[in-house]
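Supplementary Text 2. Reproducibility record for the structural model of the 199-residue chain.

All settings were left at their defaults, and a single model was retained for analysis rather than an ensemble. We include the record here because the model underlies the residue-level annotations in Supplementary Table 4.
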Amino acid sequence: MTTGEKIAALRKEKGITQEALAESLKVSRQSVSRWEMDAAFPETEKLIKLSRLLECSIDFLLNGDIQKGSECHTEVSANDCFRFIRECTYFFLATSVGGKPRLRPMGFIYADEKALYIATDNRKNVYSELFHNPLVELASYNLNTRKWIRISGRVEQDSSGSVREEMENLYPMIKQEYIQRDEMFFVIFKIIIEEATIA
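Retained model, structure tokens:
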């Protein structure tokens, strides 16, 4: 089945009209129709929303060889997540603001044996969003392997000096941006992973 066929089948299975789906996704009915006919492809943000509305994974929508309900949820460690995303060079972070999802590309990520960490600036909107609602999803796509990673979890602020030092070594631009170590703008969040899949 193509991505469009899967969207159409799941939509019909749930008794959702094209109009209702379009309204939920804030797109036109014609956009949904084009997706279902494989004449167009949903943006990443729309794919994430579609997977939630249709109660399936992004992997199922994208990969023709995966059958619904047959996904393999093998254990994916924080280090596995880190290596995958580093190879992609960036990831998308989805937060929730006022009950609406917000998606943004990000780049600063690190892992140790215990957890996955992301970094941002407390002057940015994302900091406020994470502070008020710690539930997040991360996703990244590897163009070489044609695989996705999807991570769900919650964040908590981390003040570990060792994690900051590792991130500064990994990303030299952090030292350039935050010259004085006593500057409190640079913030690290630890991700408590609830689910992680690579497919």
